[in-house]
Amino acid sequence: MARRVVISGYYGFGNAGDEAILAGIVAGFRELAPDVQLVVLSATPQETAAEHGVECVDRARFGDIGRAIDGADLLISGGGGLLQDVTSWRSPLYYLHVIRLARKRGKPVMLFAQGIGPLRRRLIRTAVRWTLKDVQAISVRDRQSVEELERLRVAGPPVEVTADPAFLISPASAGRVKDIVKRENLSAAGGRRLLVNVRDWRGPTASARARANLITELASALDTVAAEEKAEIVFLPMQRGDADLAGNVLAAMVAPGNVVLGEYSPSEIAALAATAGVVVAIRLHALMFAVMAGVTPVGISYDPKVDAFLGSLDLTPAAQVGEIDGAGLAAAIRAAMASAADFRPHLLEAAGRQRELALENVRMALALM
């Protein structure tokens, strides 16, 4: 009988970063163990099944989830930042509940390439500590997550630092990218393209004033770079809602620009990132897509996970979201453009290391089956 794995994560919500994680997990299993059958818990099961070629269960139907776990050899919880309570205190409780469903059925559980924290509420911290002591394997995507687990005093298995599964995806073909560029009315050349990703955020730094700072100062920086470097400004939304904020930044600019309006797969977005000279981004996976393509990332941090990823590349954020200085950000972008060719080999080498570490997640999972 074929081995079966149930995968629990933030899938089916139209977030390109999380869909990239899932695509990477699927790619990793197909590379190392193509016989393993994958069952994904999704908010939109039919869409997820069609996009990723996997079986799916509605993540809100706990009876169906229980039956899927009954027929599985392993539950994977991850990847991504599932155990944090900044966006919602209910969200981590959901993922912990799914873990407990598996353990009550005697099924092994792996915490798979997660980014842990921030965890601000005592109730959530206690629930995480109590639940994770009973899982069979834990891998995290950065050292900061190890430190968070140590602060929580989680008495579980040894924690392995690996990498985000998104590094396992393959970019779309050059022909497909050419079609996207034409459909979105972008320049065919692309060499001076500045790919920009923006997002709203929650937490103690979120406010109307901070959002206004993001819009005005980012617009100022992009205007400067467009004028002085003759750069093409292209906004790349990665979740529903990103396009509205991108439109606000574009409206505040003097320079022309485009907002990518189509919804594209992770492999298509990764391939589009490869056409840029520099990627300026708030979202973590937009920065990862840049590194995968050897394109210099300029990060604007809204979360410790962004700082952690950039730190792994010996980079620091160009700005903190809500505290952007337009002139300083413009200078950082121009410096990145000037050094892009020299920095490319370093990024590609880093991407190769990240890919191998991402495969280690799959090897750990297979060892539990």
Structure report:
The structure is a single chain. α9 links the parallel β9 and β10. The chain is globular. It has two domains: 4-161, NAD(P)-binding Rossmann-like Domain (Rossmann fold, 3-Layer(aba) Sandwich); 174-352, Rossmann fold, CATH 3.40.50. α4 packs parallel to α5 and α8 (208-229) packs across α9 (242-252). With 369 residues, the protein is α/β, with parallel strands linked by helices. Helix content is 49%, strand content 16%. It is built from 13 helices and 13 strands. It holds the Pfam family PS_pyruv_trans.
Summarize the structure.
The chain is an alpha/beta fold and 369 residues long.
Chain oligomer state: single chain
CATH topology description of the largest domain = Rossmann fold
As a percent range, the share of helical residues equals 40-55%
Structural domain count: 2
Element pattern in H and E: EHEHEHEHEHEHEHEHEHEHEHEHEH
Instruction: Report on the biggest sheet.
Output: 7 strands, parallel
Number of helices: 13
In total, how many beta strands? Answer: 13
Strand fraction band? 15-25%
Q: Give Rg in angstroms.
A: 20 Å
- By CATH, the superfamily of the largest domain comes out as Glycogen Phosphorylase B
| Name of the top-level CATH class of the largest domain | Alpha Beta
| CATH architecture assignment of the largest domain | 3-Layer(aba) Sandwich
- Which class best fits the helix and strand makeup? alpha/beta
Strand order within the widest sheet? Answer: 3-2-1-4-5-6-7
Low-pLDDT runs of 5+ residues are: none
**Overall body shape:** globular
Mean pLDDT over the residues: 95
Query: Separation of termini?
Result: 13 Å
